[in-house]
Amino acid sequence: MSTRTTPPVSSAGADGPSPGRPRRRRGSRMPVALLLPALLGLAFLVLPLVGLLVRAPWSSLPEQLTSTEVWEALRLSLFCATAATGVSLVLGVPLAWLLARTEFPGRRLVRALVTLPLVLPPVVGGVALLLVLGRRGIVGRWLDSAFGITLPFHTSGVVLAEAFVAMPFLVISVEGALRAADPRYEEAAATLGASRLTAFRRVTLPLIAPGIGAGAVLAWARALGEFGATITFAGNFPGKTQTMPLAVYLAMERDPEAAIALSLVLLLVSVAVLVGLRDRWMSTP
Fold it and tell me: Which of 32, 140, 182, 198 sits CB 3.0–4.6 Å from 194 for a disulfide?
C-alpha cells in the first residue's frame, strides 16, 4: 500500500511569487542626500515655466495674438514648419530605410553624420548652409547662375534651415521602427511576386506608420522652435523669414507682452507634442 506524499508548501504562501508570475517591485525610499538635489532640479526646470504663466498678460492676450506682426510670424512659422516636415519625410524615410535595412561600408559613419545636427550648434548649421547654398556657396553659386534660384534670406531658406535641424529626429524614429518591424513580412511579399518598392509601400509603410507619425511630430515641433540656423541662413525679415522664435527675440526689446504671448504659443505646442507622444515614450511597463 503506497503512501502519497504532499509536496512542501513554500513559506511565501499561495500569494507568494512564482516563476510564472512577475515579481511586483516595491517603491524604494529615496536617500535624503539625493532628495534635495532632485527637488532643486525639478524647481530649476519648472519654475521658469510657472513664471511665464504667472507673468503672462492674460487680459490683453487675445489682442496680442491677433496683432498683424504676431499673426504674420504665426502663419509663417506654421507654414515653414509643415513644409520642413514634408521635406524631412520625403528625404528622411528612405534614408532611415537605408540605415536600417542595408549593409554597406561606412554605415556607422553615415549614421553619425545624419545625427550630427542633433548636437551641432544651430548657428554653425546656418553658417554651413550659407557656405554651401549661399549665392557664393558651393552649390548655391550654380543654382543662382543656372536657374536664378536664391535660397538664403528667403522663405525657402527658412524651410531648408528648419529641415536641416529637424530631419534627424524623424530619421532616428523611423530607423528604430524599421529595426523593430519583422522583415519576414517583406520577404513573404517578395515571394508572392511583389517588387521591393511595392513591398515597401504596401507592407513596410503600414508597419512603421506609428514611428513615422511620431518622428514627423517631433520634426515639426523642432522646426517650429528653430532659431539659430534660421536667423543665420535666412535672416529676420517680417512677413518673409521672421518666424515665432525670431519674433520673440525682437519683441523682448520693444514689446515684452508680445514676446510672452508668442512664448505661450510655443509652450502650448510643446505640451501638445508631449501629450501626443506620451503613450510611445512615457509609458512605464
Answer: 198
Cα–Cα distance measured from residue 103 to residue 99, given in angstroms and rounded to the nearest whole number: 8
The model's pTM: 0.78
Yes or no: say if 88 and 219 are a contact pair by the CB < 8 Å rule: yes
Planar angle of CA 180, 186, 189, nearest 5 degrees: 155
Alpha helices in 134-208 (DSSP H): 140-147, 155-180, 184-191, 196-199, 205-207
DSSP tag of 17: -
Max Cα distance, the chain (Å): 105
- Per-residue pLDDT band at 13 (split at 50, 70, 90): very low
Do residues 192 and 175 lie in contact, with contact meaning Cβ atoms separated by under 8 Å?
A: no
Mean pLDDT of the chain: 82
Question: Cα separation of 177 and 96, whole Å?
Answer: 9
